[in-house]
């Protein structure tokens, strides 16, 4: 999909491209507590903050009370991930949206985790309780862990080199494949991301993050049908995955399957409790193409309520006015 220049009409941008993230406010925070199965705090456990494309933003460690904190965050959608490597706990992730009520305000969200124990040999797995494990050479594991640490400190050069080194030692190293693919996706290197996500999903076909990343990379490479297949596979694994439903709506819209696109986006909106701003932006695009101008304007107004500091807020308000005029006529 071609990029749209900033000076081109926002109307074209609105209905042909994805929204540009809002200007960061850097005043928001996410805090929370991590508890074990016995409801006791879990200390010295790493917690990772990621973007909606799974690129690492920051890393923290729980204190003696099991608490972690991320401060000085821009507005937007994030993923909080509990890193449980070397423990008997199952890994957990949660999505969180930081959207202040007013342009001058700040958002503070508390996201608590209650960890579950990994299944031991002979234990029956509960519903969906699939644990992926690999026997990884020690030197590859050391490189991977060092790479994650480098990337959390924004040292991309060393981080990328160490991830590649880990994959040279062990080409099927799932965590390294998935992480390097995620970093490439965030940087717009879609072909490289596609190759790595394909391999990661082959190694671990139950990986939601790899399947989702693969679908996004395929869409960006204009492999629309394949993107839809990948996103449907993700939804088989996790039917209420908001990101997968959001991207499925975008893909279906590009295929001009407007009714199906609307259904996917509405599901994503419901699951995110109406707080995922970009869903409303995409709903506006679909409604506009259905000539439902009132609904399109309503969706854009909701988008601006969630993103009051949006870069093109003035132009979007003008579009809303035009849509209202079309409704009246």
Uncertain stretches of 5 or more adjacent residues: 1-25, 120-131
Q: Spell the H/E element sequence.
A: HEEEEEEEEHHHHHHHHHHH
Number of helices: 12
Radius of gyration: 21 Å
How many strands? 8
**Helicity, in percent?**
40-55%
Q: What would the principal axes of the Cα set say about the shape? A: globular
Share in β-strands: 5-15%
Q: What summary fits the major beta sheet? A: 4 strands, mixed
Average pLDDT, rounded to a whole number, is: 84
Q: Return the CATH class of the domain at 1-20 and 258-329.
A: Mainly Alpha
What do we call the CATH topology of the domain at 1-20 and 258-329? Serine Threonine Protein Phosphatase 5, Tetratricopeptide repeat
- Which architecture of the domain at 1-20 and 258-329 would the CATH scheme give at its second level? Alpha Horseshoe
Helix/strand structural class: alpha/beta
Distance between the termini: 33 Å
């Amino acid at each position: 999909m071609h990029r749209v220049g900033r000076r081109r009409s926002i109307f074209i941008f609105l209905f042909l491209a994805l929204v540009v993230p809002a200007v960061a406010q850097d005043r928001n925070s996410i805090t929370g507590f991590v508890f074990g199965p016995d409801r006791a705090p879990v200390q010295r456990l790493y917690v990772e903050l990621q973007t909606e494309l799974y690129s690492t933003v920051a890393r923290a460690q729980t204190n003696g009370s099991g608490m972690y904190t991320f401060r000085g965050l821009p507005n937007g959608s994030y993923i909080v991930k509990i890193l449980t490597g070397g423990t008997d706990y199952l890994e957990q992730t949660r999505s969180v949206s930081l959207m202040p009520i007013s342009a001058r305000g700040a958002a503070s969200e508390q996201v608590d985790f209650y960890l579950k124990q990994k299944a031991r040999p002979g234990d029956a797995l509960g519903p969906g309780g699939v644990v992926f494990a690999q026997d990884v050479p020690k030197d590859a594991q050391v490189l991977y862990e060092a790479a994650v640490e480098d990337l959390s400190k924004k040292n991309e050069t060393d981080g990328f080199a160490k991830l590649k080194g880990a994959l040279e030692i062990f080409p099927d190293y799932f965590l390294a494949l998935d992480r390097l693919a995620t970093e490439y996706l965030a940087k717009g290197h879609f072909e490289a991301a596609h190759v790595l996500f394909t391999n990661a999903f082959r190694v671990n076909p139950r990986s939601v993050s790899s399947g989702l990343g693969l679908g996004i990379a395929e869409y960006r490479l204009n492999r629309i049908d394949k993107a839809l297949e990948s996103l449907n596979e993700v939804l088989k694994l996790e039917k209420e995955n908001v990101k997968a439903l959001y991207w499925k709506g975008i893909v279906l819209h590009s295929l001009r399957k407007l009714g199906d696109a609307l259904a996917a986006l509405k599901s994503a909106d419901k699951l995110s409790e109406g707080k995922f701003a970009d869903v409303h932006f995409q709903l506006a695009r679909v409604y506009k193409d259905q000539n439902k101008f009132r609904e399109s304007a309503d969706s854009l107004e909701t988008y601006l309520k969630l993103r009051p500091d949006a870069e093109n807020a003035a132009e979007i308000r003008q579009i809303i006015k035009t849509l209202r005029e079309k409704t009246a006529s």
